[in-house]
Amino acid sequence: MLQTRTLLDSITTKARLGTDVLAPAADALADCEQTALVCATGMLASDDADRMREAARADLDCHDVVGATLRLLLREGGGETRLLAAQLDACVVACERSNELCRAHAGRHEHCRLCTQATIRAIDACHAVREALRP
């Protein structure tokens, strides 16, 4: 797989946010998307799945919202800054919820510990992009 920065630098249309902002954000979001899905799968397969159901649902929501954010970010909101900004805000909410619930299980489940780390990186990335969008 190509590194995100290399891939973004290869296109002739240059992103208005620049690859210094886009590439690390895309990498953080892609990592979070994958981690949240694997974490949810791990929770649902565990012996205490019933107790972890709400956290698994939050992870699945996080996976979906982060994935949509990643796709919108890579095409820079289709040129609509307000749409991208709103999606980034939704992504932060989904990541915060996933983080909150996984943190409660992180001491017993490695996938939850990894998910809390990935969601924090994604939240930070969303904030960085939001800051870069400011005029």
Q: How would a crystallographer describe the biggest sheet?
A: none
- Individual helix count: 5
Helix content range of the residues, please? over 70%
Shape: elongated
Written as H for each helix and E for each strand, in order along the chain, the element string is HHHHH
What is the rounded Rg? 15 Å
**Number of beta strands:** 0
Q: Could you give the distance between the termini?
A: 34 Å
Which percent band covers the strand fraction? under 5%
Given the helix and strand composition, which structural class is it? Answer: mainly alpha
Mean of pLDDT: 89
Stretches where pLDDT falls below 50 for ≥5 residues?
A: none
SSE arrangement:
Layout (H helix, E strand, L loop, with lengths): L3 H6 L9 H27 L7 H22 L6 H23 L6 H24 L2
Helix pairs in contact: 2-3, 2-5, 3-4, 4-5
Outline of the structure:
This protein is mainly α.
Q: How would you explain this protein's 3D organization?
A:
The protein is an all-alpha fold and 135 residues long. It contains five helices and no strands. α2 runs antiparallel to α3. The chain is elongated, with a radius of gyration of 15 Å.
What key phrases describe this protein's structure?
135 residues; mainly alpha
